[in-house]
Specification:
This protein is an all-alpha fold and 196 residues long. It has 2 domains: 84 residues, Orthogonal Bundle (Rna Polymerase Sigma Factor, Chain: A), CATH 1.10.1740.10; 85 residues, Arc Repressor Mutant, subunit A. The chain contains 9 helices and no strands.
Length: 196
């Protein structure tokens, strides 16, 4: 197991990451997470949003590990990815605010919600069916989060697992659901925006 003490050791870990060592990713996570969290916290206030963003950052690091050419600049590299992820988050939030505003405008039209109730129920049914396809543990974690409203820390405590494991399961569950909801009409988009 790697222990980060200095730049030389960090460089060794990054080289190991490039060589497909998953333990190196865990070590980088342990080392960088508090620093990246503090960095993102300057822009974001919601803990779950920061955790989601950082989860994506480390997924990108792993997926693009072969593209890391210079271990000396890794520190700048990972902070740049985080900065870009925060910027993307704000862009998506802006789109979501505009989208929700559009939905509210449409909802004021008489009969709109009534006419679409059946369609909305169909989507919820599809989502529920997809949730049932998740591995049992992931399904349980997702339901505790989305249906019972427990925080990641509460779920981790209840199930006796790490917060990182909870975050990983939720992220994969959401990705699975979104990938399998191909019909992006207005109601589907609303459901995705509000509930996933």
């Amino acid at each position: 197991m790697f222990i980060v003490y200095d730049n030389n050791n960090l460089n060794t870990i990054v080289k190991s990451l490039v060589s497909d060592n998953k333990k190196a990713l865990d070590e980088l996570y342990n080392y960088y997470y508090p620093r990246l969290y503090a960095f993102a916290k300057k822009f974001l206030k919601v803990e779950d949003d920061i955790n989601d963003i950082l989860q994506e950052v480390f997924i990108k690091i792993w997926e693009n590990r072969k593209n890391i050419k210079n271990v000396e600049t890794f520190n700048a590299y990972i902070f740049t990815i985080t900065k870009n992820a925060v910027v993307s988050y704000f862009r998506e939030k802006t789109k979501l605010i505009a989208f929700e505003s559009r939905v509210r405008e449409m909802a004021t039209a008489e009969g709109y919600l009534t006419e679409n109730t059946a369609e909305y129920k169909d989507i919820k049914e599809k989502v529920d069916q997809l949730i049932e396809q998740l591995p049992q543990k992931r399904q349980q974690i997702f339901k505790l989060s989305r249906e019972q409203g427990l925080s990641n820390k509460e779920i981790a405590s209840e199930m006796g697992i790490s917060v990182k494991t909870v975050e990983d399961h939720i992220m994969h569950a959401i990705r699975f659901l979104k990938n399998n909801l191909k019909t992006l009409d207005i109601i589907t988009l609303l459901y995705l925006a509000l509930f996933l």
